[in-house]
Amino acid sequence: MLLYYALGGGLGHLVRARAFLHTLGLEGEATLFTSSRFADDPRVTGGLPLVRVPPSLDGDRAGLRALLERTLAELGATRLVVDAFPSGLLGELAGFVPPPGVALEHVARLLRWERYVADASADLPRFATTWLVEELHDDHRRALESASGEVRSLDLVDPPPPPTEPLEPPYALVVHSGPDEETLELVAFAHELSCAERVSPRLAVVAPSRPEGLPADVAWVDVFPATGLFAGAKRIVAAAGFNLVRQTDPFRDRRVLVPFPRRYDDPFARAARARRATRPG
User: pLDDT for 161-216, tens place per residue?
Assistant: First the structure.
């Protein structure tokens, strides 16, 4: 039994969890430990068993650690995979030693490392394996190498998406899970691009709910995953989150990334890397 520790309120942790489990063929033995507001959507969780972190534990390091320890014992877990934050979102896993017979692993994506360890903890658990799913900043990678038995790179593959209802071409996409203010900024940016280039594909927003204040001439579709719409899009405008950058990479010639500030993620560095990779030569 594997427990995937995907703490965080957004969509990205669950998408990455599903991709990790699918890539390694572990979906049949996994349970998700999550505080995400998207955990109620079976399209996101894929029907995997869930352990939900109650809102009462928000900000409670000791409570989160106690819940994790109880869950490991109750499930009889033999593997614990910690997503993104090696010491936990709050530092609740600082110095954590798993119970006997439980292998501790980590899935590492880009972090603003100095900010993270200042807020959480630099006292990392000892991981049997750290899986690198994107290039890290040097200080982050060095810390994980010191805290891991082995460090391995892993190219994630998402589970096959269900059939997607096509949009009428030509269309451009804005893909974002919120907040609404950011989605509307992406919409405005997409409109500016269309005006500058004198093209007018129909603009559609792919989001879990209709953003408040969305212009009447912009369509909204609740499609998950959005990947089935990418091939037909004239343009894809998105923030530079880990999953969207990875999923839109085959369409990088049509992709425009607009990063937004995040507490621990570093979408500005990710977007800059993506731009460099797109340049010819």
Answer: 999 888 999 999 999 999 999 999 999 999 999 888 877 889 999 999 999 999 99
Helical spans, DSSP H, in 120-200 = 138-146, 180-197
Which residues fall within 8 angstroms of residue 171, CB to CB, at 6 or more apart?
A: 201, 202, 203, 204, 232, 233, 234
Exposure string of 44-71, with b = 16+ CB inside 10 Å and e = fewer, is: bbbebebbebeeebeeebebbbebbeeb
**210's tokens:** 């209709």
Does the predicted TM-score (pTM) go above 0.90? yes
Please state, in angstroms and rounded to a whole number, the distance separating the CA atoms of residues 124 and 38: 28
274's tokens: 């993506």
Q: Pick the closest to residue 91 from 128, 59, 68 (CA basis).
A: 59
Structure token pair of residue 208: 């879990």
